[in-house]
Amino acid sequence: MAAIRSLGKESLDPQKVKEDKKSCRRFGTCGVGDLAIYMPGTFFNRRLYIPISSVSHVYKRVAYSKADGKGLLSPVLFIVVRYDKGQERTAFFKDLREADRMLDEIKRVAPAIVTMSPAGERNAREKARREEALKERKLSERALRSLRQLSGDKDKLKKSPVLYQDLAGMARIKRRMDLIKPAYQWIVLILFLIGAAGFIAAIMLRSSGLITPTASVVAMLICAMIMILMINTRILPGPVKNRRNVNRDYEKAVSDMEHFISGFGDFHLPAIYSHPLVIDMLTRIIREGRAETIEEALLVLKEDLKAADNTKVVSREEYEEIVTVKPMFTVRDYE
What is the spatial distance between Cα 77 and Cα 156, in angstroms, rounded to a whole number? Predict the structure, then answer.
């Protein structure tokens, strides 16, 4: 097996690198040691390293959905290591939490490394300036009234968090189901049944002596692989996960929310968008002076969500907001 090699201009002592890699903390295909950050090669994980002394930034890059605003977010998450004054190396991550744990470890091992992109640094400074400016910004009486109404709505929602969590969760599931074409479900179901039938047939043919044990085992493995692949598509219809049941559960979540907010008499958001994160986003829009009323802020928020493109770099907080909120709007076609 080829020796591990450095990506940067600087190379470390091979024996020290070998020992550091052996004890490094592993995160997906990457690793964080005391001397270097380990990145995946073409065929093997952690086959390349970048000395920590050469690294300036390590950060997440998240791409999601198309700019038409129709699709459910399909996040593609990367960790980017920036080194040698502008060189970059990326690694794909399946789990956002794993990427966050890697960044936390880097903060512990090398506090001098910036865990956001250069653009993120600028955005953070700009965000801090905007927040300071917003605190000093004078709002109209209409805007202040809208902020008081939103604050009251948020307090009411927090009395029953299960309802808005269920609403957001079912909106996400429904949107995912809506994006699956019925023809694909039938194709997957047919292939699954073919695999199951082949598996049973192989057992029966073996027991009757019509095929050899070796041939039956091969046939059973192939059929089992087909069934597993179809299950892993996660679009296989079933008694629980099917379009009718998902639609029913989503409508029940909306109905439960409508019943809950009707008890207050002065709730200002539609039930389909009743979530604290939606309120936070609307509050920001009003504070920024982009709207004065809740109705106007909702229109602005819809346009913001529709305009999301597939190259946008977002913070963890923005990412969590968008993946929670956008399905609630797309599932209703932004009505």
Answer: 35
Model confidence pLDDT, tens digit, residues 57-98: 998 887 654 434 444 445 578 889 999 888 889 898 877 788
Task: List the one residue out of 257, 288, 286 whose CA is nearest residue 273.
Answer: 257
Rounded distance, CA 313 to CA 201, Å? 52
Q: Which parts of 141-181 fold into alpha helices (H)?
A: 141-157, 161-178
Q: What is the DSSP string of 212-268?
A: -HHHHHHHHHHHHHHHHHHHHTS----SSSSHHHHHHHHHHHHHHHHHHHHTTS---
Per-residue pLDDT tens over the stretch 145-171:
999 999 999 999 999 999 999 999 899
DSSP 171-218: HHHHHHHHTS-HHHHHHHHHHHHHHHHHHHHHHHHHHTTSS-HHHHHH
Q: Region of 13 please: left (phi>0), alpha (psi -120 to 50) or beta.
A: beta
- In sequence order, the 6+-apart residues with CB closer than 8 A to the CB of 175 are 72, 327, 330, 331
- Helix, strand, coil shares, percent, the chain, to 5: 55, 10, 30
Q: What are phi and psi of 193, to 5 degrees?
A: -65, -35
Tell me the angle at which helices 141-157 and 294-306 cross, rounded to the nearest 10 degrees. 70
